[in-house]
Amino acid sequence: KAGVTQTPRYLIKTRGQQVTLSCSPISGHRSVSWYQQTPGQGLQFLFEYFSETQRNKGNFPGRFSGRQFSNSRSEMNVSTLELGDSALYLCASSLARQTNTEAFFGQGTRLTVV
Amino acid sequence: AQKVTQAQTEISVVEKEDVTLDCVYETRDTTYYLFWYKQPPSGELVFLIRRNSFDEQNEISGRYSWNFQKSTSSFNFTITASQVVDSAVYFCALSEARTGANSKLTFGKGITLSVRP
């Protein structure tokens, strides 16, 4: 069974640009969550999508957005990139929001903003 | 607001030593979930355990054991007879039932465990 796949694995962007990251959840999983990991702030929740609807949102500016497609694949977009957006972005998928199953994480996309 | 504190930042032990990773949490909810994840150098978070707030039974899985004490809001993780492969960053996390058991996890800052041969 394939795990959570995040693409690309590495990305270098310039300040002011925008970026789109992709996450393909485990087959059958309908919930996808995104997290940002930085040395200073640690792991922080960005948002969660379930059945193409955003269900939860963290405390990030509107430059961070996401969406989920009918096949449960999710994308997150960061516009007007800032140096502080450099981070490892992790995606997690789970079968459903309340079932007794765990969330599986991908290997992440490491974004560097220069 | 919920909070997870992992006071230890780095721990170094020699192989075969036992090591305990501490986790203290804060939440106002009565129904919540606690997690431990391991992050090896490759970057992905590997799930180790999830406990709900109504289950205070300690759990043992091979060399791993967890001690959940609601009275002290702690969920500590012990590795017995540590091995070099246990070297990683370990995160404790908390979620609240009202936002979804697997959603909106609040993570601690992580503990870097180094196991020397």
Walk me through what this model shows.
Chain A is built from no helices and eleven strands. Chain A has strands spanning 5-7, 10-13, 19-24, 31-38, 42-50, 53-57, 64-68, 74-78, 87-94, 104-105, 109-113. In chain A, the strands form two sheets. In chain A, strands 2, 4, 5, 6, 9, 10 and 11 form a seven-stranded mixed β-sheet that branches. In chain A, a hairpin with a 3-residue loop joins strand 4 (31-38) and strand 5. The mean pLDDT of chain A is 93. Chain B has 117 residues and is mainly β. In chain B, strands 2, 5, 6, 10, 11 and 12 form a six-stranded mixed β-sheet that branches. A four-stranded antiparallel β-sheet of chain B has the order 3-9-8-7, with no helix packed on it. Chain B has strands at residues 3-5, 10-14, 19-21, 24-26, 32-39, 46-52, 59-61, 64-69, 74-79, 88-96, 106-107, 111-116. Chain B is 0% helix and 52% strand. In chain B, strand 8 (64-69) and strand 9 (74-79) form a beta hairpin. The chains are: A mainly beta (114), B mainly beta (117). The A-B interface holds A 3-4, 31, 33, 35, 42-45, 48, 50, 55-56, 58, 88, 90, 92, 94, 97-108, 110 and B 35, 37, 42-47, 50, 91, 93, 97, 99-110.
